[in-house]
Amino acid sequence: MRLMIDTSQVTFTVGREAQPKTDQNGVQRVERNTNIPMWSVQLVAMDNGGAEVITVTVAAAQPPKVPTGSLVTPVELQAIPWAQNGRNGVAFRATDIKAVPASKSGSNTSGS
Fold first, then answer.
1. Rounded distance, CA 105 to CA 23, Å?
2. DSSP structural state of residue 40
3. Scanning 23, 55, 62, 112, which has its CA 20 to 30 A from the CA of 97?
4. What residues contact 17, with CB distance under 8 A and at least 6 apart?
């Protein structure tokens, strides 16, 4: 089951730039149906309850161009619960990871 995540109250910062998602032999994984390469991007997700580091997988011909430390928005973020060989967890997937435009930061306002 894939669960869509409401990201409207969460701020995401890139913790580590996109890396190829690889199998145990170091070969980059591809989506089964499309053969599109898969990439992993480490994000720091922060809300009023604190912060958590998550790794988000994106399938794309080229890695998302989001530098470390930049504010981003994961597009159509999904949580995918999994269980295998007595282990379990949650995998995160997005269709894209987009940089947040600098104009949204409010850097043009002056404080007194």
1. 38
2. E
3. 23
4. 41, 63, 66, 67, 68
pLDDT confidence band for 110 (50 / 70 / 90) = very low
Average pLDDT, the chain: 91
Cα distance between residue 84 and residue 53, in whole Å: 22
**Cβ neighbours around 41 below 10 Å, total:** 25
Q: Could you give the CA distance from residue 44 to residue 106 in angstroms, rounded to a whole number? A: 21
- Report yes or no: 96 and 39 within 8 Å, Cβ to Cβ: no
Q: List, for residues 8-44, the tens digit of each pLDDT value.
A: 999 999 999 999 999 999 999 999 999 999 999 999 9
Give the C-alpha separation, 65 to 40, whole Å.
12
pTM of structure: 0.85
3-class secondary structure, 103: helix
The answer to whether 71 and 46 are in contact (CB under 8 A) is no
The total number of residues shown for the chain amounts to 112
